[in-house]
Design a protein that fits this description.
With 507 residues, this protein is of the alpha/beta class. The protein has 20 helices and 20 strands. A 5-stranded mixed beta sheet has the order 7-8-9-10-11, sandwiched between helices. Strands 3-2-1-4 form a 4-stranded mixed beta sheet, with no helix packed on it. A 4-stranded antiparallel beta sheet has the order 5-18-19-20, with no helix packed on it. The protein is globular, with a radius of gyration of 23 Å.
Length: 507
């Protein structure tokens, strides 16, 4: 089947066309010279670009947010409790699985108590993750199902749980989601992504964040239903056999070396400004980090970690140096290991990662949500440390491969928003150029998953057909400039993944 996408703009050139033959681009050129096709999709005046890739997604949790209880943007604790109560009334006695609350944006500056949550949920079991998904509040009904969580590190009688206590309750809540509800959520995420010009998502799975059954369900949908390609990752210490078993991209992703700034669990060398009694937590020893990298490197498998605070990032850098000393720099570079978030690197750690070919999977939406002098980063860390977070410009200068993602449901799946946030970073020295950000949002996503084809993520003859068409005028740089000023994202009228139309215009 040959499909001609007709009348589009390529860069600044109007009246062009692209021919797709199977899964690849077979021809590009002016409309007057277009070859014959089995079907024609007329997109006169639309801008055609390589499709986006979201390099960090939790599909089920994101879909549950899209289809269920979403507390992002609630303006106060009472408003959040009202929304929880309305959901409980509409779904009596059902498990409530929600996310998105952020007490730093509320006048009350605190999380709901277990008593407040019990009243709002009408006694139903409830798991409500903080916006960063590294702590949660839970109802008594859910806690009673897993009473051993009371003896775990991070348990708080108020109901706001961190560390292992949080992991226990999250695993329990995930296990209570029915297979049908899971598929509904996963379909919602893939549909949302396709409607936003995304041809592939990187699913960051693991035993604590989602579970194997959840990952297998998502991979099955990707193989059998139209939608963005799913590039799967499994984050479990020392577990690499699953990569071959399930056909995954790697043993990387959310393998937690530490937590998150918002939950005071990102591991720091110096204490938190607003919680001077803690510097966060390291979940692994140096030997465990190096051991995972060693096992993956020996097998030629991509490994990686979630690391946010400077202490966690330095620990990972020590692991890389130890493995490079054992196997040699080239062996480590060949695996293209990746790191998620990488928000607070030291100069020395950045030098190690650049030398050893590490990929940085980053989320510009974090800076947009929490950067700046009056936002969460500054409250947690102080202005000086906060200003140095997410230094994308330094990564680009060091020639580190960048891949942009959302970490949905932490921030929404919104590729144009991610590009605009990277270009308009609140710290000018940390900004990317438009070209750098667009590359990181397209080519970088494929490269991060180990795709070494030189034409991947481009519009060129022979390249894989991953395309998105947009109803907008002008140059990409002009569009991004308007997005930085809070203009709405352009409408996606067509998304093509591996040559198949997964969203939008039909012939």
């Amino acid at each position: 089947m040959k499909t001609l996408i007709a009348g589009v703009r390529l860069g600044t050139q109007s009246g062009h066309a692209v021919l797709i033959d199977g899964t690849r681009i077979a021809w590009t050129g002016p409309m007057r010279a277009a070859p014959a096709a089995d079907r024609i999709v007329d997109l006169a005046g639309c801008l055609l670009l390589p499709a986006f890739v979201d390099a960090h997604v939790h599909a089920t949790a994101a879909g549950l947010s899209l289809t269920g209880l979403d507390l992002h943007g609630t303006v106060s604790l009472p408003a959040a409790l009202d929304k929880i109560a309305a959901h409980a009334d509409a779904h009596p006695r059902q498990l409530i699985f929600g996310t998105g609350w952020d007490e730093t944006t509320w006048p009350e500056r605190r999380a709901p108590t277990v008593g407040e949550l019990d009243a709002a949920t009408r006694g139903a079991p409830a798991y409500l993750a903080r916006v960063d998904v590294h702590s949660a509040v839970v109802s008594t009904a859910l806690l009673e199902r897993f009473p051993y969580a009371r003896g775990c590190p991070g348990f708080d009688p108020s109901g706001h749980l961190r560390r292992e206590a949080h992991h226990v309750l999250r695993r329990g809540a995930q296990a209570a989601i029915t297979a049908d509800h899971r598929r509904l959520a996963q379909r919602a995420t893939r549909s949302w992504a396709a409607e936003r010009g995304i041809a592939a998502i990187h699913e960051m799975a693991g035993p604590d964040i989602s579970g194997r059954a959840d990952l297998e369900s998502l991979l099955h949908l990707s193989r059998t239903e139209i939608g963005p390609q799913v590039l799967g990752y499994w984050g479990e210490l020392g577990e690499t056999d699953i990569v071959a078993e399930l056909g995954l991209a790697g043993a990387a992703g959310d393998l937690f070396c530490d937590g998150a700034f918002g939950s005071h669990t990102a591991a720091l060398h110096d204490p938190y400004l607003d919680a001077p009694g803690t510097s966060g937590v390291l979940y692994f020893t140096d030997e465990q980090v190096a051991g995972h990298l060693r096992q993956a490197t020996a097998a030629g498998i991509q490994a990686g970690f979630h690391c946010i605070g400077d202490a966690a990032i330095d620990q990972v850098a020590r692991g890389f140096e130890a493995v490079a000393a054992e196997f040699g720099d080239d062996a480590v570079r060949t695996c293209r290991h990746r790191l998620e978030h990488l928000e607070m690197p030291s100069t020395a750690a950045l030098s190690t990662f650049a030398r050893l070919g590490v990929v940085a999977s980053v989320q510009p939406g974090f800076d947009a949500a929490w950067g700046g002098p009056d936002q969460m980063y500054a409250a947690r860390l102080g202005a000086a440390r906060a200003a140095g977070l997410n230094p994308f410009g330094d990564y680009a200068a060091a020639r580190i491969t960048l891949a942009l993602g959302s970490d949905a449901p932490v921030t929404p799946i919104d590729p144009w928003g991610g590009v605009a946030s990277a270009v308009g970073h609140r710290t000018p020295a940390s900004r990317l150029t438009v070209d750098q950000a667009m590359t990181a949002a397209t080519v970088g996503g494929w490269q991060a998953a180990g795709d070494k084809r030189p034409d991947i993520g481009t519009i060129a003859v022979g390249a894989p057909a991953h395309l998105a068409a947009w109803a907008c005028e002008g140059r990409v740089a002009d569009l991004v400039a308007t997005l930085i000023e809070d203009a709405p994202s352009p409408q996606c009228v067509l998304t093509v993944a591996q040559g198949a139309v997964i969203h939008g215009a039909q012939p």
